[in-house]
Specification:
heterodimer, A: 278 residues, MetI-like fold, 2 domains, B: 256 residues, alpha/beta, Rossmann fold, globular
Chain lengths: 278, 256
Amino acid sequence: MSSTNLARSETQVQIGQVPRSRPYSEMSRAGMLAWQFGLGILILAAWQLASGRLVDNFFISNPIDVAKRLWGWIISGFIFIHLWVTFYETVLGFVLGSIIGILLGIWLGVAEFMSRLLNPFLFGFYALPKIALAPLFVLWFGLGLESKIALSTVIVFFLVFFNTYAGVREVDEDMINTVRLMKGTRLQLLTHVIVPSSMGWIFAGLKISVPYALIGAIVGELIAANQGLGFLVQYAGAEFDTTGVFSVLVVIGLLAVALNFLVDIAQLRLERWKIVSH
Amino acid sequence: MIELQALHKTFEKGSQPVEAVRGIDLTIEQGSIVSLIGPSGCGKSTVLHMIAGLYEPSDGQVIYGGRPVQSVNTSVGYMTQKDNLFPWRTVQDNVALPFELARQPREERRDRAREILGRIGLTGFETRYPSELSGGMRKRASLARMLLYRPETFLLDEPFAALDSQLKLSMHELLLRLWTEDRQTILVVTHDLVEAITLSDRVVVLTHRPARVVLDQAVDLPWPRDVLNVRFTNRFKEIYDLLWDRLREQYEEERL
């Protein structure tokens, strides 16, 4: 009798002591940032220590050399020329690919006959790894920026096109009918129903294609170029300059982070205008 | 006046054609309220779609105002089970949509939207988005949109099915009040026999699919009706029993 009571009261105490939430999920932003900073330092320190001890410096270079190299490039302004070229190609590829993708996506989304006609061709082309087109673009557009912009455009185009197309096909038939019954014209169907209702899809496509625009530009530069971050990586690698390779990788990483940051800001603004949210 | 003449509709989707409507003849007088009632999936909505010109009849025709319906019928306002409000527009911009399509000046359409929203008790919600409203409020906004642009005929497809019974009654009251002012022709599809009798001049019972008319019953209850109490009158009970007998047969035939 008494032992049962004891057991029961113990159970109750245990229930009362179960923490309400996991402690790490409640960590403040600043706290998490401190941990992340700490981990970053740890990785850099491990890299520095491993270099020349565990692994030959030739293969992995070391953070101090990389930092020195980057600083030198910043002082001389050397890196900015290449950074600008890659950035320019990325942005132009993104803008061109997006415009063509949105326009074609809306058109084929609305035009049943054309979409069925072109369907196998588009999917065939989509399945093709676009990177494989790079040599062709170099042949067509030369070694300059145009061939990289073209590659970036093609990659972005497909991502934006298929998202836009899906968005237009998803448009609620009842909403279309609503506007038709209210004497809406075909143009008004487009501007008042189809485009606003596929906005969420279109922006999702734009968002995922930003890093791909950068990939297109870099890969284009890797294959044949005399400027840009991709060219620098390729050049440093050919020269067995590991420090140079790592330095450019750092710059490419920072550029990617910056581009994603821009996308996040754009999305925040659009959500405030209630375009993205449904 | 709307005339359905030997109206047929068969859907050829897939390998198995589905016959939804089999030969409906019906005349709906200008300014009257007619309810269509029948088992679920019996083709009631298909009839409304054909009147609105959104479906083409497989056979027979819809004569609207003396002319056969051959394309989208812009004389009707169609309220489906969904509210069909545009989630990216505020309530007042949703309600003013028909005027925007007609290129009316912004100030004017805004004023008219605000006025009708006031009449249906949505003051204070003009600049909210549909997602911020309750189901009943969205339904009212959707009704307001249709009332505002004054189509001469309302097609209402189970307009109040999703509402709780109290809200349903207040919507009935609102609809009848507005109808007394404007005298539109109203065609209501419903599952709710009490709703059908309360609102209508005539109740038409349809068979299960393919839909045919089994009973066309006049509701000779006096206007104006008190939606809260009309259901307790003797005449209402008689009409209810008459309709229910036929409706029950339809339900029993479909019972597994």
